[in-house]
Design goal:
Layout lengths: L3 E2 L8 H16 L6 H32 L2 E2 L2 E5 L6 E7 L13 H12 L7 E7 L3 E8 L2 H9 L13 H14 L5 E7 L4 H11 L4 E7 L6 E2 L17 E2 L3 H10 L1 E6 L5 H8 L2 H10 L2 E5 L7 H8 L10 H9 L6 H7 L4 H11 L3 H7 L3 H10 L3 H8 L5 H14 L2 H14 L4 H95 L4 H69 L2 H6 L8 H14 L12
Parallel strand pairs: 4-5, 4-7, 7-8, 8-11
Antiparallel strand pairs: 1-2, 3-12, 5-6, 9-10
Helix pairs in contact: 1-2, 2-10, 5-6, 6-7, 13-14, 14-15, 15-16, 16-17, 17-18, 18-19, 19-20, 19-22
Keywords: Membrane, Repeat, TPR repeat, Transmembrane, Transmembrane helix
Organism: Vibrio mediterranei
Pfam family, one: TPR_2
Length: 641
C-alpha cells in the first residue's frame, strides 16, 4: 500500500497559522508584570486561552491535512480515449439548388451536417467542400462550433470551379488525415449524385486501404429543375432545362466499396442517428473501453469526523471564529479543490458573466464581466469589434494578441490584423490558427488592392470618356455655328441674285419694246406694200412677246423657289447629320460601358457588392481561391451541362 498526498501544496497554508500562533505567544511573554494577589485570578484566564490556542492549532493541522488529499488506495477505471478522425465532405455542385426536397437540397445538406456535429463527442473532425474541385475548409479539429459556422456560409455560388468531382473530395479528405499522421479514418459524404467515373476513381482509392466511406444521399429519382440564385433555370448547351436526378445506385455502391454505412434523406433525423451509430468513433470507444487505468482515491474525507470533534471546544462564548471555520468545512469538497482555486479568481459578477457567455447571451455578459479579456470576448461575439479592440490593446499574451487580430480583421483593419497574427507567430511559430488567419487576411488585402486598382482604372476611363464627350460636344457646336453661317451667306447670295435677275428682265423687256417700235416705224416708211402682211403678222409676234415676258417673269420666281428648297434641304440635312452624330455618340458610350464591364472580372464585380471582410462567405471563397492557386486545375470538372 503506497501512501501519498494528492495535493501537497496545501501544506503551505500552515505557514500563516504558525505565524499567528508565534505572534500571539510573543505578546504573552512580553506582557508587563502584575501584582501577586492578581496573578491567581488571571491564571485561569491564561490557561483557557492556551487551551483554545491548542485546539485551534490542532484543528488547522487536521483541516490542512484533509485538504492535502491523503491517499492510500487506488481505483481501477475504464479508459475512454479516442484517436479516430472523420471528415465531412459536402456536395456544393449546382445540382443542390434543386428543390425536390424542401426547402432545397442545399439547405438539407447543411441542416444534416450541422445536426451531426453535436453528436460527435470524441475524436477530431475536418471539413471539405467540392464542386469542380475539392477544397479544405477546416483541418481536423474538436471545435464543432467553428465547423457549424463554416457550413452555414457554404453555397455553390462561392465555389471557384463549377462541376461535380466527388472523387477529388475523397482524395482531399484522405490527404488531410494522412497529414495528421493517421492511417485510418472515416469519410462522411453528403451528396445528391455520383457519376460513373467518380465511382471508379473512389473504388481505386479505397480498395486495399483502411479508410471508411459512409454516404448520406439526398434528392429524388424524378429530380427537379435547378433554380439558380437569380431565379432563372439552369440550361444545357442546347438550351434545354436541366433536371437534376439522383442516381442512388452509384451512391450505395460507393458506401459498399468504402465498407461504410449508406442511408437516404429522412425528415425525422433517423439518417443522422444511423450514421453516428455505425461511426468509427463508437467502435473505437468500445475497444478503448476494454482498457483501464489506476486512479488514486482521495481519502481526506475520513478526517472530517475528527474536524467536527475539534470544533466542539470552540462553541463557547467569545469564540468568534467558529462560524467561518464551519463555512469552510461544509463548503469544502476535496475532489474539487483545484476547481475551487480556479473559480476563486473570479468574483460573482464574472461568474454571472461567464454563465451568460455560455448561454450565448453576449449582451448581458459584456455588462457583467470585469475581466478585460472576457469582456472583449463577449463584445467580439456580440459584434462590438471596436470595443473589443479597445479592451484588448495593451495585452501581450498570445491569446489576447490572437483575439485582437480577429477583432481587427472583423472590423476591416486588415493591416493591423496581419500585424497581430505575425506577433503571435513570433512568440509561437507553430500556432496553426494564426497562420491560417494570416493567410486569409493577406489574400483579402490582395483582393482589396485589386479592387482599388480596378476602381481607379474605371474612374480614369470614365474621366476620359467625359473628356471625349465634352470635346465631341464642342466640335458639334462649332459645326452647327459654321452651318448657320453658311446658311446665312447662302440666303444673302440668293437675295442678291434675285434682285439682279429682276433688273435684267426689265431691261430685256424694254429693249425688246424699243426694237419692235423701231421695226414698225422703219417698215412703214420703207415698205408700204408689205403693210398688210406685217399687220397680219403682228398679232403672232405680240403673242410671242407675251410668252417671252411670262417666261422671264417666271424665271426669278423659279429661282426663288429653288433657293428656298435648297435652304430647306440643307437645313434638314444638317439636322439629320446632328441626329445621326448624337445617336453614334450614344452607341459609342454604350459600347465603352460594355467593354469596361467585360474587362472587369465578374467574380470581382460580385465581391465588390459585399463587405469583403465582414462577410464570412467571402473569407471562405478567398480561402478556396488561395488553395486553387497552389494546385493544378482539374482536367475535367464533371457536370458542366
Amino acid at each position: 500500500m503506497n501512501f501519498e498526498f494528492l495535493y501537497p501544496q496545501a501544506f503551505w497554508l500552515l505557514l500563516p497559522v504558525a505565524l499567528v500562533v508565534a505572534v500571539k505567544n510573543y505578546r504573552q511573554s512580553s506582557s508587563s508584570l502584575i501584582a501577586s494577589h492578581l496573578e491567581k485570578a488571571l491564571r485561569l484566564q491564561s490557561d483557557s486561552k492556551k487551551s483554545a490556542q491548542f485546539w485551534f492549532t490542532l484543528l488547522c493541522l487536521v483541516l490542512v491535512t484533509a485538504i492535502a488529499g491523503p491517499s492510500f488506495e487506488t481505483q481501477t477505471r475504464p479508459a475512454f480515449q479516442s484517436s479516430s478522425a472523420r471528415v465531412l465532405v459536402l456536395d456544393m455542385s449546382r445540382s443542390v439548388y434543386a428543390n425536390d426536397i424542401k426547402p432545397s437540397r442545399l439547405a438539407q445538406i447543411k441542416y444534416k451536417a450541422q445536426d451531426l456535429l453535436p453528436l460527435i463527442t470524441d475524436g477530431q473532425t475536418g471539413l471539405v467542400a467540392y464542386a469542380g474541385d475539392a477544397y479544405t475548409l477546416s483541418p481536423l479539429t474538436t471545435d464543432s462550433a467553428t465547423l457549424g459556422n463554416l457550413i452555414t456560409n457554404l453555397s455553390p455560388e462561392i465555389m471557384p470551379f463549377q462541376g461535380a468531382r466527388a472523387d477529388l473530395a475523397v482524395k482531399q479528405a484522405i490527404d488531410m488525415m494522412k497529414q495528421a499522421g493517421l492511417s485510418s479514418g472515416e469519410i462522411i459524404l453528403f451528396s445528391d449524385d455520383l457519376g460513373q467515373s467518380e465511382l471508379k476513381a473512389i473504388e481505386a482509392m479505397l480498395s486495399g486501404h483502411s479508410w471508411k466511406l459512409s454516404v448520406l444521399a439526398l434528392g429524388t429519382t424524378g429530380g427537379a429543375p435547378i433554380t439558380l440564385p437569380d431565379g432563372s433555370l439552369l440550361t444545357d448547351k442546347s438550351g434545354n432545362t436541366v433536371v437534376a436526378k439522383t442516381h442512388f445506385t452509384n451512391l450505395e455502391q460507393a458506401a459498399k466499396v468504402g465498407r461504410g454505412h449508406y442511408t437516404t434523406y429522412r425528415s425525422d433525423n433517423q439518417d443522422i442517428s444511423s450514421l453516428i451509430q455505425t461511426s468509427d468513433v463508437t467502435a473505437n470507444l468500445k475497444k478503448e473501453g476494454e482498457q483501464s487505468v489506476d486512479i488514486r482515491v482521495n481519502n481526506g474525507y475520513w478526517l472530517l469526523p475528527l474536524v467536527l470533534v475539534l470544533l466542539l471546544p470552540l462553541f463557547r462564548k467569545g469564540v468568534v471564529f467558529c462560524s467561518p471555520l464551519l463555512a469552510i468545512l461544509f463548503g469544502f469538497n476535496s475532489n474539487n479543490a483545484e476547481a475551487s482555486i480556479i473559480d476563486s479568481a473570479f468574483n460573482n459578477q464574472n461568474q454571472l458573466g461567464y454563465q451568460a457567455f455560455q448561454d450565448k447571451n453576449y449582451e448581458s455578459a459584456k455588462n457583467l464581466f470585469s475581466n478585460k479579456q472576457w469582456l472583449a470576448a463577449a463584445q467580439y461575439e456580440n459584434g462590438d469589434y471596436q470595443q473589443a479592440i479597445d479592451n484588448l490593446q495593451g495585452e501581450s499574451d498570445i491569446s489576447a494578441l490572437y483575439n485582437l487580430g480577429n477583432a481587427y480583421a472583423q472590423h476591416g483593419e486588415l493591416v493591423k490584423a496581419a500585424d497581430m497574427y505575425q506577433q503571435v507567430l513570433n512568440q509561437q511559430p507553430n500556432h496553426a490558427d494564426a497562420k491560417f488567419n494570416l493567410n486569409l487576411v493577406k489574400d483579402a488585402m490582395k483582393q482589396q488592392q485589386q479592387q482599388q486598382q480596378q476602381q481607379q482604372q474605371q474612374q480614369q476611363q470614365q474621366q476620359q470618356q467625359q473628356q471625349q464627350q465634352q470635346q465631341q460636344q464642342q466640335q458639334q457646336q462649332q459645326q452647327q455655328q459654321q452651318q448657320q453661317q453658311q446658311q446665312q451667306q447662302q440666303q444673302q447670295q440668293q437675295q442678291q441674285n434675285g434682285g439682279n435677275g429682276a433688273k435684267t428682265s426689265q431691261q430685256q423687256s424694254q429693249s425688246n419694246a424699243n426694237s419692235s417700235s423701231k421695226e414698225n416705224s422703219s417698215g412703214e416708211t420703207a415698205k408700204p406694200d408689205s403693210e398688210r402682211a406685217k399687220n397680219n403678222s403682228q398679232p403672232e409676234h405680240s403673242d410671242n412677246n407675251k410668252e417671252s415676258r411670262n417666261q422671264q417673269a417666271k424665271q426669278p420666281q423659279e429661282k426663288d423657289n429653288t433657293t428656298k428648297a435648297s435652304t430647306e434641304k440643307s437645313a434638314s440635312a444638317s439636322s439629320g447629320e446632328q441626329q445621326s452624330q448624337a445617336s453614334e455618340e450614344q452607341k459609342q458610350a454604350q459600347l465603352a460601358k460594355e467593354t469596361t464591364q467585360q474587362n472587369v472580372d465578374p467574380d470581382l464585380r460580385k465581391l465588390e457588392q459585399i463587405e469583403s471582410v465582414r462577410d464570412p462567405s467571402y473569407l471562405l471563397r478567398a480561402q478556396m481561391l488561395l488553395q486553387s492557386k497552389n494546385k493544378e486545375v482539374p482536367t475535367s470538372t464533371g457536370k458542366d451541362w
